[in-house]
Amino acid sequence: MRLVTSNEIKMLDQRAIKDFGINSLILMERAGISTIEVMWNEFKNLEKYSYAVFCGPGNNGGDGLVIARELLNYTEAVKVILMSEKLTSEATTNLNIFKSLGGEVIKLSDDNILEVVDIIKSSDIIIDAIFGVGLSKNVVGIYAEIINFINLYSNYTVSVDIPSGISADTGKILGTAIRSDLTVTFEFPKIGHILFPGREFSGKLKVVKIGIPKVLQDLNPCDKILLTKDYFNIPKRFKESNKGTYGKVVIIGGSKDYIGAPVLSSIAAIRSGAGKVLLFSTEKSATVALNHELGIIPIAISKDYFDKSHINLILPYIDEKTSVVIGPGIGRNPSTEEFIVELLKSINSPAVIDADAIYLLRNHKNILSEKKNIIITPHPGELSNFLELDIDSVKYNYKLVKETAEKYNLLLVLKDVTTIISDGEKIFFNVTGNTSLSKGGSGDILSGLIGGFLAQSSNVLESSLAAVYILGIASELYEYEGYNLITEILNNIPKVIAEVKE
Ligand SMILES: NC(=O)C1=CN([C@@H]2O[C@H](COP(=O)(O)OP(=O)(O)OC[C@H]3O[C@@H](n4cnc5c(N)ncnc54)[C@H](OP(=O)(O)O)[C@@H]3O)[C@@H](O)[C@H]2O)[C@@H](O)CC1
Ligand SMILES: [K+]
What we know:
The protein is an alpha/beta fold and 502 residues long.
């Protein structure tokens, strides 16, 4: 599903209005009525509840006034709190209709704040129509006070389009923001619903159509996409096949300090359906690997860390049909830097670069640019190291993810609660997964899974999308969120693959 920024949705709204004569009041009407439909689906008997509708100065407030008017058809217990003297003409039209139906309007001022707080406390449902995608600066003053009171006292809050105070473009809080139970957004989710804290503040998110013509959407191709299973294929299985059909994965990782990481990657690669998995690692990791899965072919180095002397050991095993995963548990020994650089120069296979291998390549970005089919899978800390930027300017920075992918000719997977994936053209946002993945080993599973799909398809984008999406669902299947062994998530992968394939 397409994701939009505030400018993109405003442009689509404007073109619907100007090019097709679907005037603004029509769109507002659909926005309001669709919100009521969602509420009806959630609560059923709308007549049982009392409502306070907070309306801001823009068209978000106008939507609120449509909602308030429609609620009068269910109950008289509807109060509109007008937050501003200034209203748009569409909002004014809807305010007049509401008033002509006998609706109660309270104009917020410094003098009646306490009365309004009582209304918040005594209403069953608060409708937040204060700011939508037109929020342009930090929320301060009386707006901020009311938002904070709503967060403190509301029994249940429904946000119209986006929780007021959340930036539609970044998901960040501008000053203060409504913490919603339910958000009804129009036409497409906004980036602010998908990135934290906006994702959390939105509560349950529902997307409704308000009649933006499809031709307009087709004319304006999107580059930001909410990842679903429609965007990738799982490599096929063939009745007549053998291990050669499903590719070979070479996993290079492990060091004196990390033993389990490359083993997890190797098992994940096997779970992806890959035909053959070779693990180059330390002797300890090789032993652990065989203790867990006899299908892994371990080849042990006799040292604590990889160095240049290991290149000739590995190269004969890598050919065009191989995918390579470098990095799980590989450590930061200076000798390993030279090893990785030389190895990458010598191979042409698609490769996943993970963990400390990303760190060790920070001064060799040109090597990555020169190669095709390279995937890097940093978390925000690793990407901030790699790009020498502070972590805040990296976290959830989808534009940076796209720019970096384009600049260095990479497929970049920025792992986080919302994972962002870009090939330099499109940006995918993944929202599957939960805190069962917030523990050591989940990154190793991811890189192995990508490498495994890559060995079967050599499509860097689809392999990455599939792995990120599937690992997320595998964590959601675990019954006791957060109290899992990481191998339990690994073992859920086949079930998820089967479901995704259906
Ligand atoms: N026809 C359409 O386009 C449709 C739009 N629809 C609905 O309208 C919403 C977008 O409407 P919108 O563009 O009027 O913006 P909205 O979010 O209501 O707020 C803008 C107002 O707030 C003000 N303001 C901003 N920040 C502020 C702050 N921190 N503190 C104080 N004030 C602040 C800002 O002032 P300004 O920045 O201009 O000074 C302006 O007055 C959209 O989310 C959807 O719900 C649907 O009905 C479908 C059709
Ligand atoms: K809102």
